[in-house]
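Sanity check

After download, print the first record. It should look like this:
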Amino acid sequence: MTDSSAPDDAAALPLDPAPSGAAERATATPPHFADGTARSLERGWIAASRFGGLVFFGILGALGSAFLLVAFALGKLGLPAFLGAGLVLAGVVGVALLLSVFWPKWEYGRAGYRILPDRIESWNGLVFRRAVSVPISRVQYTDVKQGPIQRHHGIATLAVHTAGTMSSDIEFPGLPPALANEIRDWLVSQTGSDAV
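Expected structure tokens:
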């Protein structure tokens, strides 16, 4: 004979009561983005990265050229040294500018992220690969960053800061701004803290 006073789902009850709100978070249906699917960055990331690289190496080339011109004008460099240094500078900056155009497209195919109900993962890098997997329980706070170039291309970066070493911090570049904010809000609800 069974005890009718015991609830039917007594076996499913935890032995230790969960902290306030933890049971609701644990049983809540994960949002659409926390389904474990590997996702690529938004294509706007390619254009934003290209623009950033072109501006950086363009400014570097202009500064190098100005330095050479001033050194030549002040007589610190003779004509052969000036021409040789100018050719080397032009070659280095030219290769850097070409890489700024092609590198983001190559890296785009090797960068992505995955969000699971209990952890977040990110990977990137073409030559030097980096893959980070962080349990959500270690998340301390997040930032959604969007500079003018990212705004122009309709993307944002979600930075997730964790407990422990800096190498376990994780960034999700190239997200749609609405999704970056949605993930940030979800992380706040999972940790139960406004510090996220």
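If your output differs, re-run the checksum step. Summary of this record's structure: Helices lie at 22-27, 44-73, 79-108, 148-153, 177-191.
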